[in-house]
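Methods — Computational structure assignment.
A single polypeptide chain was analysed. Its primary sequence is given first, followed by the predicted tertiary structure written as C-alpha cells.
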Amino acid sequence: MQNQPIRKTIIISAPRERVWEVVLNDHYTSIWYEEFSLGARAETTWEEGSKVVFTDVSGGGLVGQVIVNHPLEMVTVEYQGIMHAGYEEYDSEDAQEVKGGRETYTLTGIDDLTELIVETDIPPALFESMSMAWERALRKIKKLSEEPLS
C-alpha cells in the first residue's frame, strides 16, 4: 500500500536561525517530539549522509539517513527501517512499509518572519493520528521559536 503525504505549514514570528535551532537542536526536539511519542528523541549529527535513529521510551522508532541538509533552508530524512525494542529492523513488513518514506523541513523567510513547511509520507493506517500530531508539534515549534532566549 502506498504512503499518504502530509504537508503542514506554519508562520513563525522568529528569524530562520531560531526556527532552525528549534527544529534540530536536542534541547528543543525533546520537547516537541513528545507530540509523537513519550520520550521521543533523535540520535544524529544532522549532517548530509549521517544516520538518524528516532526512538522513544519503548525503544521503538525509525531509522533513516539525512539525504539533504542546506543549513537554514532545508533538511530531509529518508527512512530505511524501524526500531523495535531497541533493535534496528530493515527487512520486516513494518520496516518495508516505511522504507523510502521521507520527512522534509523547509524554512523560508525575511527578517523575523519564517514559514516552516513539513512534508512527510505516512502509511495510511497512521495518517489521521500523525496529521494531528504534526499540528500539535508545529504549534510547539512556533511557541518555542517565539519565546525570548534565556
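Note: The beta strands are 4-12, 41-43, 51-55, 61-70, 74-84, 87-89, 102-110, 113-122.
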